[in-house]
């Protein structure tokens, strides 16, 4: 198969066929040898195996094992070729970091989890594991695949009833890099002392510790299968206040907005405790920071606003903020279909409960936005919300606008 490939032309220079991955046909950056002796680019062959394939892509021979051996000789030849063709704009591929040895990972986890080891030894092991996890996604996968990895880390984080030590904090920073199994969520969420410890960490002097605590809380809420477990976490008043305080200080840390809104959204998915988020100041904070979120986080923020608008306390709090309605109107059709749907849903709740919100929406130009929305290719749910809003606001429109909008106001609602 490699011999049948024609050299690929790139920026005026031909890439030799033996430098190209037989799967992706791209220049290999991390060539590895599999059990059949064939060489592939590491990401390509890992994806091939991850999708359930058990044969060599070139020879179709059954793989004896799935060990990947770095082809250092070929990588150096590719690097030399890149340097030789630098004048054609070819950049030298960096020397890739090699994945961690699973045996080393097992040893480090054992050192960290053993109470018989000296404190410095356990702390050093955790720091090495965290460094490996930060270096490569593959390393995170290797650590996560260890049968007791999460259990070991959970036990260290909450050792001695949640003693705030450097060891706890290092284990927490590592634990939040992995999704939690349901058993891990049960082990934490069902223990009030552990949940209380996470709540206290949300007010820690270190912003990194606060963010890691918020991230773990979000992981716990996402991984808990039962409403009872989620409620046990979200029922703690301090958790809402701590998460919202993170959102109020986005400049303090680049991860603050992303982690804060993920945690707050997860908390607000629990219906029974949404009023706690409102009492902690979520409406004002969300409106004040809405313009600072990136696209994905803006969607999550708007979804959170819509959830809080579904309870009387939340609806009243948002209606009382002068910028709420203008910002939501401005958001329609500006960010994404999902963002539009959430904004329209929040406006529907607000305008259903407040005549002032209706007037504010009309003054902010909602009529034009809604008419464009019902004619767009957005979701059926967004169109249904837009049509309901059009009917609700009809009496608030200027007289010269109503006549031109009858077709939309009287159209069938999409359910």
UniProtKB/TrEMBL annotation:
Pathway assigned to this chain's UniProt record: Protein modification; protein ubiquitination
EC numbers: 2.3.2.27
Lineage top rank: taxon: Eukaryota
Claim: Coiled coil is one of the keywords in the record: no
Span of domain U-box: 14-88
Keywords: Acyltransferase, Ligase, Transferase, Ubl conjugation pathway
GO biological process: defense response; protein ubiquitination
GO molecular function, one term: ubiquitin protein ligase activity
Pfam families, alphabetized: ARM_PUB, U-box
Catalyzed reaction equations: S-ubiquitinyl-[E2 ubiquitin-conjugating enzyme]-L-cysteine + [acceptor protein]-L-lysine = [E2 ubiquitin-conjugating enzyme]-L-cysteine + N(6)-ubiquitinyl-[acceptor protein]-L-lysine
Annotated function: Functions as an E3 ubiquitin ligase.
Protein name from the UniProt record: U-box domain-containing protein
Species name: Rosa chinensis
Upper taxonomic lineage: Eukaryota, Viridiplantae, Streptophyta, Embryophyta, Tracheophyta
